[in-house]
Amino acid sequence: MTGPGDDSWTDADIYRDSQPGGVPYHPRPLLQDSPFYGPNLIAAIVCAVGIVVGSVGTWASLNSISAGGLEFKPWGTATLVLGAVSALALFVQLNLGRTNFDLRWSVPLCWSVLVAAVACIAIALVQIVKIRSFGTDYEDEILTQVGWGLWLVVICAGVLGITAPIVAGQIAKAAEAQAGGALTAWVPGWRWGAVATSAAILIVALFFAYNPTRVDVNISQSTTKTVTAPPVTVAQADPERAFGGGGSRVLPADATPCPSTFVDAEFSSSAVGTSVTSCAFAESVRRAYIGNPGRDRPVVIHATSPVTKLSYRMSCSAGPVVQCSGGNDAVVYVY
Fold first, then answer.
1. SS3 142
2. Topology of domain 14-210, per CATH?
3. For 61-79, what is each residue's pLDDT tens digit?
C-alpha cells in the first residue's frame, strides 16, 4: 500500500478516486470535469485585461489631437479599476478551481465580475454618445472620432459579460454538488442580485445616453447653453460697428468685438458671436485664419484654445467679415 509519503505518489494521483487496494486519494476537483468552465474562464481573464488596456488607450480624437481614457475623469479610471479587479478575481478563481477549496465564496466572486462588465459597457457607451454629440461641420464631417481604446473597452466588456455568467453558472453547480445541495438559497440569491444590479446600471446608462452632457470647449463653465449662430451678413449696418471702406465690414448686431493681441493689416480684429466663446479663443482663430492660404473661399482651420490647450476644427466662410463656427456652439468673426 502506498501513500503521500511514498516515492510512488505523484501529483497526478490526487485526481483519482482511489488507488489500487481501495485506499482513497483526494477527490478530483469538481470544476475540472466541467466542459465550459476552463475556456470561458481564460477568455474572461483576457477580456478583463483588455478593458485595462482600453482604459489607458485613446478614447477620442479631434484631427491630430487625442485624449486617453484617463483624461475622461473619473470614467476612464473607473473602467481601469473595474477591469483590473475583475482580472484579479478571475485569476484567483483560476487557481481555486484547481483545488478542493470550498466553492461557496467563488459564487459571489464571479457574479460580481458580471456586474463590473456591465458597468464598463455602460460607461463606454455613454462616453461614445457624448463624443458623437459634438456634431458635424458644414460638410457633414464628424468633428470628433471615437478612439480605439474606447471601442476595445466596449468589445472586451461585452465578451466578459457573456463569459462571466457561464463561469459563475458552472461554479454554482459545482458548489451545490460540493455542499450536497445545501446551498439552495445561497446560489440563486447571488445570481438574481447580480442580474438586478446590472439591470439598474443599464437603466441609469440609458438615461445619461439620451441626455448627453455637452462639454464647453472654450470656457470653463458648469452650465450649458445652446445658441443659434447669427448670419454672416445683415441687412442694415450699425454705424458704430462699421469698419473701413465706407462700412464694407459690418458685424452682426449681436457680435461682441474683442481687443486685438497682435497686428495684421488685412484682418485686424476679431469678435465673438456667442456667450460661450472667449475672446482669447477668438484671437487664436484669427491668427489661424490669417495663416491659411485659401482665404478667398470657405476653409476649415484648426485653432488652439488658450483655456483647454486643445485644438478645435472651425469652418470659416469668405468675405470682409468672416464667420468661423465649430466646437460646441463657438462662433467667431474675423474682420
1. strand
2. Butyryl-CoA Dehydrogenase, subunit A; domain 3 (1.20.140)
3. 876 677 888 888 888 999 9
